């Protein structure tokens, strides 16, 4: 009678091993790994290539790096400014549909794309704000993330002002995603502060009405987000205090301006 080998302790617990009669074989079509150069030149490839959200975040980081390495831009017509804006615009234009939002198709947060969009809008503000026509003097007390940068006021909104206003609004829109703000990178605090400086500089303009509700709601969104982040990050608490104080000053001045105009121009009985 043939004897059987004794079972090991593991076999006694799990039972005899079952070997599949058709194990998976090594794949012969393993995709060739892509490099950073392939990512940069993806629009010239002869086939559509899928890149991860992290790859698009890398591109945004490279654009921010280009901005930081650029010598001081001398004026709005500086070719370096146009070159950097081309990089930012190309990043936006060539995003695949699934990456144009920080949320996936089923509503989940894509944190890498959130950070990418956040970084792109922040870079746009840093690039264009010095050449915009939004007077930053009313917001000089907001210096929790960076020293105040004086920008002189102009009579009309130039293209740089439009870039800055659009980027600040897009940052506030990121706050409206139904996800926990505490799941984001802590750098979101400084990006919210940049956005708030733009909103408040615009609200302080004399020709912007006191009751501009869209602008007021954007300011409130940013303050609310900073308030939530302040539960964890001390920098957010400091930024919230500065933004809220400036918003109060502008609100009070605007309200008094409206009351004065009503007194000087009473309505007919």
From TrEMBL:
**Region called Disordered, residue ranges:** 1-21
Top-level taxon in the UniProt lineage: Eukaryota
Per its UniProt record, what CDD domains does this chain match?
fungal_TF_MHR
Kindly give the PANTHER family that the UniProt entry links to this protein.
ZN(II)2CYS6 TRANSCRIPTION FACTOR (EUROFUNG), ZN(II)2CYS6 TRANSCRIPTION FACTOR (EUROFUNG)-RELATED
Spell out the protein name for this chain. Transcription factor domain-containing protein
Q: From which organism does this entry originate?
A: Ophiocordyceps australis
């Amino acid at each position: 009678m043939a004897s059987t080998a004794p079972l090991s302790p593991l076999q006694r617990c799990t039972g005899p091993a079952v070997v599949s009669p058709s194990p998976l074989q090594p794949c012969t079509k393993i995709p060739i790994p892509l490099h950073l150069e392939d990512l940069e030149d993806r629009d010239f490839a002869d086939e559509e290539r899928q890149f991860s959200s992290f790859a698009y975040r890398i591109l945004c980081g490279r654009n921010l790096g280009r901005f930081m390495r650029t010598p001081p831009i001398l004026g709005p017509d500086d070719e370096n400014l146009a070159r950097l804006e081309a990089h930012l615009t190309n990043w936006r234009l060539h995003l695949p549909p699934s990456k144009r939002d920080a949320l996936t198709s089923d509503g989940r947060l894509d944190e890498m794309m959130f950070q990418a969009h956040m970084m792109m809008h922040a870079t746009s503000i840093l690039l264009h704000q010095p050449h915009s026509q939004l007077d930053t003097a009313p917001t000089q007390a907001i210096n929790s993330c960076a020293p105040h940068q004086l920008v002189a006021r102009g009579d009309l909104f130039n293209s740089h002002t439009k870039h800055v206003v659009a980027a600040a609004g897009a940052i506030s829109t990121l706050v409206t995603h139904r996800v926990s703000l505490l799941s984001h990178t802590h750098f979101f605090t400084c990006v919210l502060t940049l956005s708030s400086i733009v909103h408040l500089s615009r609200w302080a303009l004399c020709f912007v009405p006191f009751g501009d509700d869209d602008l007021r709601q954007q300011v409130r969104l940013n303050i609310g987000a900073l308030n939530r982040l302040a539960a964890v990050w001390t920098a957010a608490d400091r930024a919230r205090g500065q933004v809220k104080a400036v918003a109060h000053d502008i609100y009070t001045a605007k309200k008094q301006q409206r009351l004065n105009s009503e007194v000087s121009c009473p309505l007919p009985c």
